[in-house]
Every structure is written in structure tokens, then in C-alpha cells.
Amino acid sequence: MRSGSMLQLAALVYSLLSARSQYDSCKSLVNTDDAGPSWEFYACQPRAMAMKRYLRVKVEPPGVTCGNPPERFCALGNPYMCFSECDSSNPDLAHPPKLMFDQENNGPVTYWQSVTWSKYPEPLLANITLSWNKSIQLTENIVITFEAGRPTTMILEKSLNYGRTWQPYQYYAEDCMEAFRMEAKNVRDLSPVTALQVICTEDYSKWVGFENEKNLHFEVKERFAIFAGTLLQNMEALYKRMDINKGLRDFFTLTDLRIRLIKPATGGTFVQRKYLNTYFYAISNVEIMGRCKCNMHANSCHFKDGNLMCECEHNTTGQDCGKCRKNYKAKSWRPGSYNPYPMGTANSCMYTLPIFQDTCHLSIVNQKRINRKYCE
Ligand SMILES: *[C@@H]1O[C@H](CO)[C@@H](O)[C@H](O)[C@H]1NC(C)=O
Ligand SMILES: *[C@@H]1O[C@H](CO)[C@@H](O)[C@H](O)[C@H]1NC(C)=O
Ligand SMILES: *[C@@H]1O[C@H](CO)[C@@H](O)[C@H](O)[C@H]1NC(C)=O
Ligand SMILES: [Ca+2]
């Protein structure tokens, strides 16, 4: 490695490490000379985690996963290399959806696989829907690994409301104009003004010259870099933007993600009817690094009974710390603020003074009719 790129790598690692330790404490005990120790509160967020461990997956339509009935499939570009059979009733030959989210370690690659395109020219469509039942915020690129060629056409979609409504996140095609009537773009072409544009990219769909490329990205880092600099060295600038721009915060937030597979890899040529058992989808890994969205009111998030929950501080409550605790509604709820960098402002919920009890007490003293509503 050249020393220049070594330096870049070191800077990147450094900025990632420091980025991770920002906003990590919600409060600390400070000593003041006159009043003794007291709490100080800060904006805080949980650490980023591998979100593939906490999701539920649904693959549609039913029957699109291979193996029922058992089926032989062959290598794309080499239809005489028919290496294997998919059989859902045999654990050694089955390719269920959960194999997209397991830990690969150093064992053999495990993957979900679709049926082959035997029904051509009817399209081979599959939706893979990932649900967290919790708002999460992406912190790194989504990386999807395809074992049998990256698809010719697909769409990544997201939902912010637990799957009630969906919006496109990114279009992927070998030819964006042909597939979606969209101009091909690259995240590197985006500017602060267009950073949140939904684009169609051809970067992850080409075959010729990229036969061995397996990964497809949704570029989170590159979008952060539009504000924070190419090495993400200026996270302060990104956080300042996030603070005033809800659209920017929401762009990286989701509750569900859907991979809409529309056309499998075809080896850079037209579909050959003789070799339909070489066309299928196979996904070995979906890497999604992110953190629970807790509105800057929690620095930890727990997985309990199959669901992620923020451990709310600052007298807030709810799955995302999105409201004030009972009796802490003296001010209206607000998210914590990233400003001033790097500790932020907690914007805690405040205790409601018990004025009602006083009114009740006074009523008794004055022997007036007791107002039950106040005295209960
Ligand atoms: C996939 O999801 C989209 C909506 O996001 C829907 O229109 C389409 O019918 C679904 N396709 C399949 C095969 O379930
Ligand atoms: C989703 O999360 C909410 C809040 O934690 C919980 O009440 C609900 O039961 C969860 N839904 C499912 C399907 O687990
Ligand atoms: C929340 O309320 C408790 C109990 O009144 C109080 O001790 C604590 O300081 C409050 N926290 C914040 C962040 O205001
Ligand atoms: Ca796997």
C-alpha cells in the first residue's frame, strides 16, 4: 500500500473511532464549589450495532425460495458447471432466508437462493422485506452480497412507518434509462443541495469487467462525506446540518427495508432459453450498521422479547424516547440537540409542579366545595 493511502486509511479509522465516541453519555456528575455534586445532562445516542441481528425477514412471493420442489442450478457463464442442487427438505442443500443474516466467520459461505428463471419470459420477481419494528439510523453503507452475480435490475425501498408506506431509496440497473427512464448517477455527483436525491446507479449492476464483484452498496458514508468531508474529518458540520434539517435526519432513518429484485444477472448478454437454470438470485449477506433512534435521549438500546427498545433518559419515555414521562410535561417534548458540539443539549422533560394539590388544600381550608378533579 502506498504511504499516502495508508495515511488516508489511518485518518479514516481515526475519524470513525472518534465519531463513535461522540454523544455517548447522557449525563455526568459534576462538582460545583457551593452546591456540591450535581448532574449535568447532554444529548446522547446509542452505539452503532450490526442491525442484521435484530430484524425479521419476509420473502415474497411465497415459493420464490428454491428447493420445493428440489431444483438443479448451474453457473452463470458456464452452463455445463452444474455444481449443486437446492432442496429445502435437506438442511445441507436448503437456502432459507436466514442465511442472509448469519455470521459467516471462516466457514463456508451460506446464502438464501431463489428459484431459477424457468418461467421466462415471465419476470423473476422477489421482495425481501426486513423489519425492525423500531426506528433505526444508518451509520455506514448497507452492503448486500450476491453470490451468483449482482442483479441486472433492482430497487431498494424503505419505510419510516413500520411498513404502512414505502418510498424508493435507490434504483440499481445495468441501464438506468432502459429500466427506469432515469439518468444514471453516482453519489459522488451529488452536492449539499442534492444530497438526498433518490438516484439510479449503474455502479453495481454491470457484468462485463465486473464478473467477480459481489457487493452492492447503499452509500451512507459518501452522503455523510458531502457535509463532513471525504475522510469524514468534519463530523461537526454534518451534525450541525442534522440539527436544523429533519429531512436530512429522516433520510438515514428507517423502520423497514425492502430489496425488490426485478431481473437477475444474465452475464452481460441476452437471456438464453437453453440455460434458464443459470439465472437466479443468491444473497449471502446483508450488512446494515446502524443505531437505535432514541431522539438523542438514550445511550443504550436493548433487545427484549424480540424488539429493540431505547433506555430513555432525560425523563422521556416511549420506544424512541419520543415523549415526556407522566408528570414531566412542564415543557413540550423536544429531541436532544447536537449543538453545541460535541456534548449537545439534552432538552430534558421537566417535572410538572404539583399545583393541583395546593389548590385542593386551599379549598379545604376555605371550606369551599372540594373539586374532586383536583384532589384525586
Ligand atoms: C413487492 O413490493 C412492491 C411494493 O413495495 C409491490 O408493488 C410488489 O407487488 C411486490 N412484489 C412481490 C413479488 O411481492
Ligand atoms: C413492536 O414494538 C412495540 C413497542 O415495543 C410492541 O408493543 C409491539 O408488540 C411490537 N410488535 C411486534 C410484532 O412485535
Ligand atoms: C428527571 O426527574 C428526576 C426525578 O424528579 C430527577 O432527579 C432528574 O434529575 C430528572 N432528569 C432530568 C434530565 O431532568
Ligand atoms: Ca450467510
From TrEMBL:
Residues 1-21 form the signal peptide. GO terms for biological process: animal organ morphogenesis; axonogenesis; tissue development. It holds the Pfam family EGF_laminin. It comes from Chiloscyllium punctatum. Keywords: Disulfide bond, Laminin EGF-like domain, Signal. Residues 40-291 form the Laminin N-terminal domain. InterPro entries: Laminin/Netrin_ECM, Laminin_N, LE_dom. This is Laminin N-terminal domain-containing protein. Gene3D superfamilies: Galactose-binding domain-like, Laminin.
